[in-house]
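Practice record 12: protein with magnesium ion.
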Amino acid sequence: MENFRKDNTKYADKASNIIRRPRTPLNGAQGLSKSPDSSFHGNDRQGGIYVLNRFINSATVSPMKKILCLPMVLLLISSCARGNGLYTETRVIMATYITITLDRSGKTEDELARAAGDAFARITKVDDLMSTYKPMSNLSRINANSGIAPVPADPEIIENINDASYISSLSGGAFDITVGPLVNAWEIGSKKAHVPSPETIKKTLPLVGWRDIVVNKKDGTVFLKKRGASIDLGAIAKGYASDRAVAALLEDGIKGGIVACAGDIKVFGRKPDGSPWTVGIQNPRGPEGDVLAKIPLTDMAISTSGDYERFFFKDGKRYCHIIDPHTGYPVNGLMSVTVLAKDSWLADSMGTALFVLGPEKAYALALKHPELEVLMITDSGKELATGRFRGMKVNMAAVKS
Ligand code: AMP
Ligand code: MG
């Protein structure tokens, strides 16, 4: 079985219109904005444990309220961070909380602040390039020109498209960044979220198809073949942004730390006392911060996709923000999928891909890829685990379907 590789040259050669650029360290970068409703508590309130809880219930909390929460979050962080050898800074980028935590060892306050600033700058660059909420972003211009003309694309966008196409291929199309028109039709995460008419779904589905993305390697352009098609990098770019931020911190000589781009978390090195970092996995049916399991991590990325992040109920049925590109409807079958991987872009994209595949197919795929470690909670409250999640104490009794 082919393993996940960063250098997907073989794959790229096979795929007719997809190019593959080597993932070289780039200067500067940033993170993707998903919904303005997104928010994250990557703070120390769990006693140094980071909780993988991307979104406060967006149906009940306005973006403004979440932003107003920020000073309190910062206060809690700084009170916890002081004295434990950690530097912590939170900023709102991509309409979400991004928290960077650093081992202070050997660095002055100025050096730590500069390193965190460099990492945040990379995340901001990803957002500026890839946000679909910014009409002038590079990605928005590519989308606006669908069916009309190729658009020059930043190498970081091309890199994400290539990686996403690789995951689409591996997941049989369950993962598909051209879900943009479906995401717009459902408007999940906004006050306008609704079930579209069957006619709308029928009309929208033909616009979705990752093979209709044309990347011209020579010209450095991206073209969407169908007028009205659009790319949404919401399932991969936060992970990518975490990777970019960690790369900046390593370049700045930071020994250890955590970058938490919403629920896409990458840790490197260890805590100042030499112990691993700890990340908590959110109970998909519990209050925010209710942890199902705690996992010690060094040099790993972890990401959770869950049906509790953005959703609405209609006639007693839950509709979440992850959409099956084959049917056009939000996916049921799993409450959450947590993926551990070396790279954050991979953990992020595979979390979404497995979520779409549903329990059986996702579990079968996860078993074939030991480089991924997966914890899935099914709709019926069953646990499916691979790698280190197997035999781990998970408080499943707390999960109510
Ligand atoms: P995540 O929270 O990482 O699972 O990403 C979910 C986001 O990715 C959604 O809010 C959409 O913007 C986008 N998305 C939804 N369904 C898919 C899909 N099947 N493949 C790729 N991206 C998707
Ligand atoms: Mg994802």
